[in-house]
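seq as requested:
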Amino acid sequence: MDQNAGYIWAKLIALFDSGYGNSITTDSANNVYVAGGF
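struct tokens:
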């Protein structure tokens, strides 16, 4: 992953995290999911 893609990914996480009030996190297998769902 290049630096720009990492930045975009971080911004997307921040957007979803603030917009839906849920915490985006990873599980033990590094799968990204939204805790609590939508």
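The chain has one domain: 3-34.
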